Amino acid sequence: MLYREAGDFKTSYRDDGQTFPIRLDRVAYYAVLIVAFLIVPFVINDYWANAVVVPFLIYAIAALGLNILTGYAGQVSLGTGGFMAVGAYAVYKLMTTFPEINIIIHILLAGGITAIVGVLFGLPSLRIKGFYLAVATLAAQFFLVWLFNKVPWFYNYSASGQITAPTRTVFGLAVTGPSTSAAAKYLICLLFVFILAWVARNLTRGTLGRKWMAIRDMDIAAEIIGVNPLSAKLSAFAVSSFFVGVSGALLFSVYLGAAEVGEAFGINKSFLVLFMIIIGGLGSIFGSFAGAAFMVLMPVVLKNLLVGQFGWATDLAAHFELMIVGALIVFFLIAEPHGLARLWALTKEKLRLWPFPH
Amino acid sequence: MDQLVFAAEVFMNGLMTGVMYALVALGFVLIFKASGVFNYAQGVLALFAALTLVGIQQGQVPFAHLINSIFGTHLEYFGWTVPVVLAILLAGAVMVLLAFLVEKLVLQHLVGQEPIILFMATIGLAYFLEGLGDVMWGADIKNLDVGLPQGISESIESVSANWFGYGFFIDRLDIWAAIIAALLVTALVAFAQYTKQGRAMRAVADDHQAALSVGISLRFIWVMVWSIAGFVALVAGIMWGTKSGVQFSLSLIALKALPVLMLGGFTSIPGAIAGGLIIGVGEKMFEFFIGPMIGGATENWFAYVLALLFLVFRPQGLFGERIIERV
């Protein structure tokens, strides 16, 4: 009774085709937006922004991107870290070469550059499938990281080989560089999350998304009914890489401030984002957010619990964290292979009947 | 001329490294064939096996760090050392136990799930084992010595010095690794072809349901295959551990074995060996000829790019089963 579609009548095609057709979903969505845009920026502090909220928003974009590729189009990718590095280095080169142009344009351009690189590495997907493709995307991961390490032009010949984000402003408010306030970091990330999540939601329920899902379910059958695998697979790679590139650009410029490619964008990043979408739920926008929240929060909670509460040595706690992360992933896969999104759907199902379950 | 002799030496060393890669890839192929699981944890299995071996050999107290920090004790060593052969047997027993637990706690619950889910589960397993290995035996770098000969092989050096006027540098450990790998592969092939369990294993690899219907216990076969993979991991762990110390980076050899698998095909034992040799030689030769021109350290990605280009022309790898799709 709390959650229902019944009685929510649509009288025009416009109503029927809106992003959230169910009234309660719509209300909840607007409520979340109001809290996120109007309340959180005033109460957020440095600890929460840096430890939880900003990484959550940034990884949510990456998870959305990978979910489009893996969850919707069915192409498993282990190259996310490499593509994030492309976004980060692209935004760095743009920021330092054209300092007078607004950073938001730089970040979008960085996403575009990553999309081109993604399509390039997506080309083999037309021939290679399944695990062979997953391993093939590792080629992107290792090659790109090596490239950014070895070619000094990418890091402007700096002695340390690191890239450091200069201060840039949006409407007079610093969003990158050391003097950025927590609220500014939060707002710029939120802006991108808001727009990109909306884009992802509408892409995946439109023509393009249906083509992707047809390819995912069986590519030969999809080809027979008239889906062009070339354009469907490559567009999935392009859109996914755009998202991942924007996320990498934000991770470097807003969150980290300075980055070294092997450390910040190594293979562990690829696995982290993959875990997010598996735990959150493949082929679900909500799942991408849930997974990102889970994977960002868990280490923070564990660290506070083990080091803060029990007073263990940090190295022991770190090893335990590995064990717990691993065990939790296995547990989740056994208990609910379709992820948190499926749990959420089940909850809604229960709420629909509550309090009369029969 | 000099260049050619150097290249020949690089070629030999590449072959030896390739054997080591093939050793890890072998474990992957065994599990993939028998259960369709793409086992990312194979590298960590090798690390865990090597850590366990060193721990048993030196009489370390397992979980010493954890016990100390909970009870405030100062345990570290039992104060005895275990003979090599016994230690290897005990470590092998631990790997069998681990195989049993993995089947019981993880695989059994994931029967019939999609391959990607199983793959993710093995990544989770890899994280877990990495943490467990560190908690159990400590994270410091350990020396592993099981009495394998090491250092430059003088006989090869003197023979090659006579022939080419230049002594080849080839590590004796690599030669031993090649011999042991050859023995291991022969033993595995013999096991698969001529024993009852081996036949059952091949039947399961061919078709799970058909194998079940003629009364083969899937669970037993899985435990067996994971035990064999654990044993292969132990051998690989001993080789790599002796070569470069037992430490976290040992688990990264799994990443080296993946392109080997792609090249050779996921389902073929000869493919794993051929792929290992091609990648081993290829990356060493590339680093030798092209590496200096583009900044070196190409070994990290060359294998992947090679495998990628290769797959574009032959999507199932060198010896993999032909992929047939029906609508």
Report the portion of residues of chain B in β strands: under 5%
Strand content of chain A: under 5%
Biggest sheet record of chain B: none
Mean pLDDT across residues of chain A: 89
Distance from first to last alpha carbon of chain B: 57 Å
Q: Shape of chain B, please?
A: globular
Helix/strand-derived category of chain B reads: mainly alpha
Number of helices, where a helix is a run of at least 4 consecutive DSSP H or I residues of chain A: 15
Roughly what percent helix of chain A? over 70%
The percent of residues in helical segments of chain B reads: over 70%
Q: Please state the structural category of chain A.
A: mainly alpha
Descriptive account of the structure:
- The complex is a heterodimer of chains A (358) and B (327).
- Chain A is mainly α and 358 residues long.
- Chain A has a domain at 31-266.
- Helix content of chain A is 72%, strand content 2%.
- Chain A is built from 15 helices and 4 strands.
- Chain A has helices at 13-16, 23-43, 46-72, 80-97, 103-122, 130-150, 182-204, 207-217, 219-224, 229-256, 261-264, 267-280, 285-309, 314-335, 339-353, and strands at residues 163-164, 169-170, 173-174, 258-259.
- In chain A, the strands form 2 sheets. Chain A has a two-stranded antiparallel ribbon. In chain A, strands 2-3 form a two-stranded antiparallel sheet.
- Chain A is globular.
- The two termini of chain A are 12 Å apart.
- The model of chain A has no long low-confidence stretch (mean pLDDT 89).
- Chain B is mainly alpha-helical and 327 residues long.
- Chain B has one domain (2-313).
- In chain B, 72% of the residues lie in helices and 0% in strands.
- Chain B is built from 14 helices and no strands.
- Chain B has helices at 2-35, 42-58, 64-71, 84-105, 115-137, 154-164, 172-194, 196-206, 208-213, 218-244, 253-264, 269-289, 291-294, 299-313.
- The longest helix of chain B has 34 residues, at 2-35.
- Chain B is globular, with a radius of gyration of 21 Å.
- The chains are: A mainly alpha (358), B mainly alpha (327).
- At the A-B interface, helix 6, helix 9, helix 12 and helix 14 of A face helix 3, helix 5, helix 11 and helix 14 of B.
- Chain B: Belongs to the binding-protein-dependent transport system permease family. LivHM subfamily.
- Chain B: One of its GO terms (molecular function) is transmembrane transporter activity.
- Chain B: One of its GO terms (biological process) is amino acid transport.
- Chain B: InterPro entries: ABC_transp_permease, BCAA_transport_permease.
- Chain B: This is Branched-chain amino acid ABC transporter permease.
